[in-house]
Structures are given as C-alpha cells and as structure tokens.
Model the fold of this input.
Amino acid sequence: MNNTFDKLLAPLQLRGKTAPSRIVFAAHQTNLSTNHRFAQRHVAYYAARAAGGAGLIVLEGSVVHPSDWPYEYAIFGYDEQVVAGYQQVAAAVHAHGALVLAHLTHSGMQGTSHYSQAPLWAPSPVPEVNSRELPQEMEPAEINAVVAGFAQAAQFAMAGGLNGVEINAGQDGLIRQFLSPLTNMRGDEYGGELDNRLRFAREVIRAVRYAIGEQAIVGLRLSGDEHAPWAGIKPEDAAEIARFLTSDGQIDFISVTSGGIYTRHMTRAGLFAPPGHAAHLAAQIKTGVQALVFAQGSIVDSLMATGLLVEGQADAIEMTRALIADPDLPRKLRAGQPDDIRPCILSNQDNIIDMVQNPRLSCVNNPAAGYESDPEFATLPPVAKPRRVMVVGGGPAGLEAARVAALRGHHVTLYEQSDRLGGALRIAAQTPGRDRLALAVDWLEAQVRKQDVTIKLGVEVTPELVQAERPDAVIVAVGGVPGRYPFVQFDAAAMPILDPRQVLRGEAPEQPGQALILDQIGDPVGMGVAEWLSDRGWQVMVVTADMFVGQRLTASQELTPWNQRAAAKGIVFRPQIDVERVTGRTVYGCDHFDRTPIQFDEVDLVVAVTFEQPDEGLYLALKRAGQQVTRAGDCVAPRYMSQAILEGYRAGREI
Done:
C-alpha cells in the first residue's frame, strides 16, 4: 500500500460493520431503473465501484411515498417489489466487501406533478423555483403518512439485504424543506422556532430506527449551507441542527452537502467551483457531533481527500464523480498507481441527467460509466493478429482510439499536425475556470505513451503519406473546422472578425477595446471567450438571438454562476437580437420579435461563435482510394468531448 493514502484506504466502522475504505459512492440519479426498480444495469454499475474498492455505496434515491414521483425513472422505495432489486444489488456489492445503503427520500416541493398528476406536498405553499409550481401545504395526516412511508421503505431496504439506510435531508429533500425557514412558514408544531422545525426530521429518524432495529446503519444527508443567508440554513444553523439530530445516538453518520431551492447548482458544482468547495461545512459540523461525518463538494483528488481525513475535518469522503470517471480509483491507489487514475474533470456534461430527454447517466471522460453491462464495455478483447494502425489526430478522439487499439495489441502510430497533443480541448482549457479540461488529454497522452504508441508531432497527414506508410488500417480523428455564421453579411469590416479558436490562439488585437460576441450556440465556448477577453481588459457584449445568454449552460448547472461572474466583470448581455450585417465598425441587426432596427457602433472586434463543420477531406479521400479507414470525433460531426472519446473508444476496439 502507498503510505500516502493509508488514511483514505483505511477501514471504517459503522454500527459494528466494516467498510473496506473511507471512500463513499454517494446517492445520485442514474435513470437506469426498469419499472421503478433496481435493474441489472444498476447491479453492474454499483458492482464495478465495489470491485474497485469503494468502502460504502449509497444507492440511487428511493422515494418513500406515492405522493412523490420526481422523475420518470425514479425508484419506488415504498413498493414491496423494490426488494428483489435491492437483493441483486446487495449480493453484487457485498461480493466485493463493500457496504451498501438505501437512500430514502421525498422531494416535496422540489418534485413535479407531471408524472403523478397530483399536487406536490410541502411544509408551506412556497413555489418551486424552476417550474414555479405551487405545492399543497401538508396536513398532519399527510405528515404522518410520509413518516410511516420512511419507516416502511427502510424495512424494504433491510429485507433486500442492505446494511442500512441514509435519510435525505439534503438539497432536494422534504426534510430539509421542513428544517429551513426559507420553505417552512408554518404556524403549528412543525413550524416557527427551530425545535418545531426539527420535529418532522426527528419523527422520521425515530420511525426509521424503530423499524429496522439497532443493528442497521442509519445515516443522514444534511445540507450544511443553503447559500441563502436572508432566510435559509446557514453553516452555523446546520451545525446546531446536526447536534440536535445526533444527540440521542440514533444517527451513525452525517453526510454534509450544500445547496437549497435557489442554489441547486451548489450540490454538484461544476468547473465554476474549486474542488473541495464544501469541505469546510463538514469540518464545522464534525466539531459538535459524536456521529461520523462525511465530506462532500467536488472532492475528486485523492490527495485532497486524504488531507481532509488526516486533518480531522471528516471521517470519510464522498468521491462520487471521481468513481464515475474511474471505478478502480481505490484499487489503483492501493497498487501504487495514482497516475493511472482516469481523472474527473468536473464538467457535469454527462452526469446531470434530470432533463426532458431522460438520458442515462454516463461520464464525459469514461464512456463505460452507466453502460458497464453492455458488451462493448464488458470486455476489451485482445487481437489474434496485431496490425499496423495509423491514427491521424491527437485530440481526445484520436488519443482514445490509439490507447484502446494499443491495449488490444495493435502496433499504433499517432500523427498530430501541431506540436502538441490534446487538440481543441487544450484550447478550450485556456478559458477562465476551465483548466481542468486539460486533465483529460493529459491522462490520455500519458496512457498512450505507456502503451509505447509511436507519436509523430508536426506532421500533416495526406493521402500520399498514407499510401507511402501502407498501414493496415487508418483512424481519422482530425476534428472540426470553423463554420460560417449563418444569415449574417460580413462586408468591408474595419475590425477583425475571428472565431473562438483564433481568439484563444492570441490573434485578437493586443490593444483592448469593444468586443462583440455573436453567439449562436449558447454553450461554454462563447461564454468562455467572453470571459477570456474581459480578463484582458476588453469591454465585452454578448449578442444572441436566444431568449437569454448562455442558454445551453443550464444542462451543466453553470448558468447561475456564469451570470454572477459576467455581472462582476461588466459583461453586457443583449439577447433576442438577430444580427444581419457587419460593415466598417458597425454591427447591424434587429429585435428578434418586433424587428426594430438595432446597431452597435465603434466595435473593435467581432467574435463569431457558431457551429463548426467536420474536417472530412482526408477521410473521404482515403475511402475513395480503397483504404480501410474509419473516423471518430468532430470529423464525423462536431459535438462534445464525451462523443469524441466514445467514438475513439469504438474505433480502437473495432480495428
């Protein structure tokens, strides 16, 4: 064992049971269920993390009462048929020595009536922030029904062979809504002073403990800060709540999260927040309770996790996204191979899935996540006869293709036109706060070098070069090229008109002035360029035809923090404008709806942010010449990193 990580890999005692490490895989939505029960996809998903060395696994939330159906594929923990699924997951997890808990939850006002076709239940009629749906204030009989639901769901969890349960009083739970004066405005014995607001939580904990006995583990997931100081739970409030709720010894651990109805993005923060941003909340609670305390908050680095334990700020660490990116993280630490851990880049691109498309959970950097039982990820078969494989393009798609092909036993040569591997991802990593993106290609580059892939930089691959090298197979992964901004006439411009790559390569004028970002996409590309220019002294305005600036940032929970940063930097938003013409130093357009003419004068730089096009010339030429060739990534269709890595994996696997 590497002594550096001894504390993180040490066993953890919970109610007389032993978790093999202090690494926790916490509850999160997966959309893997079938008929609202745990399915074989869950079994494979959780078993992979247990096999990799996670100490404690907390399953996807199980709702405890029919009044709560928060998303289409929610687990119905109140239905006895959930037991069979628990049994399958428990057997798979226990086979590798890990402990496993059910996560019992009720979403209250933060759910939706879309599926249940019934009113939401909540402490008070406070509208849900996103949907603006007004919930029904719970009557005493309904409160009692939910308390009984928690107890019954806990019994089903134990019947399913689990080691216990975690009760949700976190960001999205009904219990937190009772605890918080932000959402609890009742005048009866469940509202008002803190002692009354604690009543519902106490009743749930007492009922659950009574239902499952003294031998089972009972934990509590608690929001340590709602980030709403005008009315919500503040860190000092959370510490007091934790003391009260653990004083009778019924709670074995508190998992400290953050966020509330107005700050959902802080529960699973993306690139906008530093790793470990919420760890101090756990430390504050730990000083006043006898129960174990788990830290959370974008903790994806093993050294940081170990440091928190060594410093006594927590007893265990939730490393959920790190384990999604690499299920074998603990095993690799034990083996002294920390450099082989596939990094979590905290982009939130594929693991925020509560959206109308109902995607299955996955990982931008690990395409096998959520698909562990699929044949293409279950095994990576070695080749019977190694072949000479030429991979063209050193971005994420090409690097992954080279890595996988080499792992299978092929002789791989990787060509990159520039003088550095990483492709467009390295360019994107230059924008403010997005430097972690480079970790993905850093890891891929290290892995291909470890596999003795031959790397040739600064070489432009042509059909003639391919013909001269005579490879057995070619994988083209050369990326995309800038597209033309549609429906805009660019003529006689007296200022530079650049695309985002040109800006980040340093082609903008050195003397800052007025910059207009013409944004057709609304994702981190345009927003990142806007911040990059602002940080260098430019006066930046973002112009878009969309209803609001940064429209696609909602999917990764970045919209609110982007607005906060942009406001602080003086970036101006001009949504709902159709740009029509750029001439001289003036940009002409009109209101998207009433067509009122609008113009922007004295512009010094225009950045046209539009969809790229595939660079497919080499692929098509090789295909016409009869060469065995496949392609992956943006040269198929420019999209996001997750698609590039997935297609690179498939290309390397299928050669």
Notes: The longest strand covers residues 56-63.
